[in-house]
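Q&A log
Question type: sequence-to-structure
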Amino acid sequence: MPCLDISTNVNLDGVDADSVFSTLTTAVSQIVGKPENFVMVLIKGSVPLTFGGNKEPAALAEIMAMGGLNTKVKRELIATIGSILQDKLSIPKTRFVLKVFDANMGRNISKL
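Response status: OK
Response body:
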């Protein structure tokens, strides 16, 4: 089950949250190759957050999934999620960071 967790300093009052959730869910589902009903998306707004020493709109996101997060997928997630946040929340792509965690990697390492 892919889980996308986004924290942003943008105030989400007045934002069409349903559209943001729907767009992110569909994108993650298609990129990671999992059904939409397995994708979880969390968005926390108005989080005290600075990036580059200022409080202009920015976001930190983490995505965790069990497998399927190769380099190509990671790049596509970064580009696509960054575009969605820019379009829907006016967060510049240059002020967005995505941490990617593959839950299977920990299992593989522990078996070595």
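Response note: The first strand starts at residue 3 and ends at 8.
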